[in-house]
């Protein structure tokens, strides 16, 4: 007996650089600043709220779209922050994390042969979602200069064809730490105006925008909100990435199609966690205070990196810091990260891993969502460079 052959649907997908670097960091005892998640605990009050929900017997299947108290809390938050009121009944769906929200947004809207504009560098779940839907990714690369990364909107416009079904954007942006400004949103609106193009807006780092700048959620802009699937993540906001809970906000017509797929790829999401989040969201301070929380960590990390030979790129949002290392090495990004992990004892991620065809820019990404002592240990080691 032998296992029958199976033809892969994702021939380009293999072991990710994140897995490789985390394994190497563990083997070498390195400080892992490659992992894009915190090494500190969430607020005990959130755990208590979820625990109470479990103890109160809220452990059976919830409604497919999510429990109504949580959807109402989400709608209230979005309206307070961005001025757009989503109907919690027909326009907000609780998801098993943002990756599921992104996959479901694509699967419900993209048909075989449809083109989807993707802006690189790009998080690794976007392109497989497009390919599973039978779509065709069309890549536009961000430009990088002294002011950091920016989107060349003229090239985005040039990438649009009659076959374009969707444009995917991400702000604040992983891996670059850049954010879209009002001028970027205006440029996007001009491109899609008068078309049937949909937008998938990945806003999982929405509460990590620094230096007093606003998060330019597409929910702020009615012209774009009416054609957008907006994805967000409780895991990022509340330091509970392992809980895998997020949401998608979209107009009723788009949400109806989204839920047709959602009900069959996850059906619904962890019940007590939803009730716990709904209770916890009654206090807005945790997400309102998050920009200052992470800005302090960013500033601590950047101040330490100033004592190294890295060239720092701007970090306008997220919990990532990109650096150029050409004053240190002429190795490829992947080889430099392996050397940095093995010989210096600090793990990073090559930005080249975020391109469909790896592009060497001499830039790597660090994550500063770590305890201060973790960051200081990493900085002490990097000071040797």
What is the element layout, followed by pairings?
Blueprint: H1 17-28, E1 31-32, H2 44-55, H3 68-82, E2 92-95, H4 98-109, E3 115-120, H5 126-132, E4 136-141, E5 143-145, E6 148-150, H6 153-159, E7 164-170, H7 182-192, E8 198-202, H8 222-225, E9 228-233, H9 234-238, E10 246-249, H10 252-265, H11 271-280, H12 285-288, H13 290-305, E11 311-312, E12 320-324, H14 333-344, E13 346-347, E14 349-350, E15 363-367, H15 372-382
Helix pairs in contact: 1-14, 2-11, 3-11, 4-5, 4-10, 13-15
Describe this structure in words.
The protein is of the alpha/beta class. It folds into 2 domains: 17-42 and 288-382, Alpha-Beta Complex (Aspartate Aminotransferase, domain 1), CATH 3.90.1150.10; 60-283, Aspartate Aminotransferase, domain 2 (3-Layer(aba) Sandwich). 39% of the residues lie in helices and 16% in strands. It has helices at 17-28, 44-55, 68-82, 98-109, 126-132, 153-159, 182-192, 222-225, 234-238, 252-265, 271-280, 285-288, 290-305, 333-344, 372-382; strands at residues 31-32, 92-95, 115-120, 136-141, 143-145, 148-150, 164-170, 198-202, 228-233, 246-249, 311-312, 320-324, 346-347, 349-350, 363-367. The strands form 4 sheets. Strands 2-10-9-8-7-3-4 form a 7-stranded mixed sheet, sandwiched between helices. Strands 11-12-15-14 form a 4-stranded antiparallel sheet. α1 (17-28) packs parallel to α14, α3 (68-82) packs parallel to α11 (271-280) and α13 packs parallel to α15. The longest helix has 16 residues, at 290-305. The relative contact order is 0.18.
